[in-house]
Design brief:
Number of strands: 0
Helix content: over 70%
Distance between the termini: 35 Å
Structural class: mainly alpha
Largest sheet: none
Shape: flat
Order of helices and strands: HHHH
Strand content: under 5%
């Protein structure tokens, strides 16, 4: 029982370390390079903790043999992780694309109103990246069940 409580506590502590490092760097006015390295190290620690928990059999999802509901396998968990990453990373990419394209589109439209449609196309193409990520995640999730 103690092991079951310590591992999530360790994950929470590892997730809070980058915020403490970043706050210290901002107050001192120094370069955030050390905070970035600390963030990478804590990310590796959280990932290592998430690998140790299933392999070490600290958490068991026992089901009855006659039960229709089965426990999620590691493959299904990785599928859900992949679906989440595909949506999250595609939305980050779309945000970067729209963040760069929208101000340029506004500037081009303010100089010549005829450029509105052309500039709107570039903004919509940036938002399409997020839709592709959503479609990929739907395909991943539908493949997990079958």
């Amino acid at each position: 029982m103690l092991k079951l409580m310590l591992l999530p506590l360790a994950a929470v502590v590892l997730l809070l370390v980058p915020f403490a490092l970043m706050a210290k760097k901002i107050k001192s006015g120094r370069s955030p390079k050390g905070a970035f390295i600390g963030n990478l190290c804590t990310f590796a620690g959280v990932m290592l903790t998430s690998i140790i928990v299933p392999i070490g059999n600290f958490v068991s999802a026992a089901t009855e043999e006659g039960s229709a509901a089965a426990a999620l396998s590691t493959g299904a968990g990785l599928g859900y992780l992949a679906a989440g990453l595909s949506v999250g990373l595609s939305c980050i990419g779309a945000g970067i694309a729209v963040g760069a394209g929208a101000p340029a589109a506004i500037g081009a439209t303010s100089e010549d109103p005829k450029n509105f449609v052309k500039s709107l196309i570039f903004v919509v193409l940036g938002e399409g990246i997020a839709l592709y990520g959503l479609l990929i995640s739907i395909l991943i999730i539908s493949g997990i069940g079958g």
